[in-house]
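Sequence design from tokenized structure. All designs in this work follow the same two-part layout: the structure record, then the generated sequence. An example of the structure record is given first.
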């Protein structure tokens, strides 16, 4: 539902709580309220604001799932795997904040090679810096 203003009636709030099929949100409102209350840095939130948070979270997770499934189906698989969710996070700009939480998997051999390369670069830089100090 795309609206420019906040819902003003109980009927509009109820509509927010229902998806296109007329079923309740996948996220229980009481659970969302508990999560909000558990975060000490947040102020108390009105029920309509909590419903908006629940709906936004539901829409966010639906889109993340859709993008993850897109990656799955492009590889002709039927099960969403971690790598599919990580790919969705990498490609969807709205998920930039999840990049450190859901990183792409990297093979151990690749990480070791990167580590050795970085160590070689660091050693070369320190050798060059040492020569500069001796020359002065």
């Amino acid at each position: 539902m795309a609206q420019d203003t906040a819902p003003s009636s109980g009927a509009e709030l109820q509509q927010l709580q229902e998806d296109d099929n007329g079923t309740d949100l996948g996220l229980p409102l009481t659970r969302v309220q508990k999560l909000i209350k558990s975060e000490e840095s947040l102020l108390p939130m009105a029920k309509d604001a909590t419903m908006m948070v629940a709906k936004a979270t539901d829409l966010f997770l639906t889109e993340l799932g859709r993008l993850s499934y897109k990656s799955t189906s492009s590889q002709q698989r039927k099960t969403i795997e971690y790598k599919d969710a990580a790919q969705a996070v990498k490609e969807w700009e709205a998920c930039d904040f999840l990049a450190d939480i859901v990183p792409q998997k990297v093979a151990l051999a690749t990480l070791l090679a990167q580590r050795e390369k970085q160590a070689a670069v660091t050693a070369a830089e320190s050798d060059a810096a040492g020569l500069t100090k001796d020359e002065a």
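The longest helix spans residues 47-74. We note this feature because it recurs in several other targets discussed in the main text.
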